[in-house]
# Entry
Amino acid sequence: MEEEQNVTAKPSPQDTGTGPGETPAAAGPASTDTRNTGPGRLLIAVYAVFALSATARAAYQILTKFAEAPLAYLLSAFAAVVYIVATVSLAKPGRTWFKISVTAVLVELIGVLVVGALSLFDSVNFPHETVWSLFGRGYGFIPLLLPILGLIWLYRRRPAPKQA
# Structure
């Protein structure tokens, strides 16, 4: 009799990986929508390194020589925030975090392209380099390559369409 109850009993939320009030069907896509497996882990690690380095660089620049190039240093701080958001959102599963990841990586790509072009053609406003200056030349052009790789990874790991 005890075996019958075990066979027909509904699995607990801990068994299915769902939260309270969620159904296993709703959790199915979320568990397969993770972006933090395989090469995604390397991508997240690189984003984390850039988040740390951009944050440290911006903090140092703003605290010690902000008057020399305020626009460049504020852009460094903005880049740091973008890298932090991208790192966290890439590591989290789910449809909402996927959308945040896409937004953060697109903002990063646009930022690298715009700041890279401005620093190339308007060097007066960029007397000192930022993470994205000259398309990330100071970082081996990784800031230019990283969002492209990020968007490819996000495209390949996009969530399944919602079931009606």
Notes: The CA atoms of residues 43 and 149 lie 8 Å apart. The longest helix spans residues 39-65. Residues 38-156 form one domain.
